[in-house]
Specification:
The chain has 191 residues and is of the alpha+beta class. The protein is built from 7 helices and 7 strands.
Amino acid sequence: MKYLRKIFILCTLLIFSAEITTFASTKIENNNMASNIKNININDNIINNASPDADEVVEVFNYNDNKIYLTEYDINLMAQVVYAESKGEPYEGKVAVASVILNRVLSPGFPNSIEEVVFQPNAFSCVIDGKISVTPTQECYDAVYDAIRGNDPTNEALFFYNPETATCSWMTNIEKTQSTSIGRHLFFNTK
């Protein structure tokens, strides 16, 4: 009877070990799939939206077959920037600010995630002065979603500033292309 009990315990341990091994390999496969979704290869450029889990993707921005997979965090972060950078601007100006963020993620000259673009050093005055910690209005979220749907009133601009209040000499002195004025902001690209 003693030996039967030991054999039973041994068999139970073997079965349990096999289940743990199967579970672990399934978990590794799922993590690898999530990593593959996070890093999308588009025309030999990797666009990484820093999504911690594929289940968190809530929106996809699609432009010329380039896709950015957006999480709730990305959308909230964009809405905060829109609020802080374009408070008092017309709705089109809010959409334009959101569009600049998306345009930068797609541009090879900028980081390849929403978070990295927003927190890139000296990129947005609201991050520099700490005014990004705001609660966006519904209008800001609407503007972000309009930009995600492809509404870009900036003509693919990568930069913007308010010429009346700008303290950055780079913005005022750089040669600009494709300039578009919306509200008090000037949206543009550089040569």
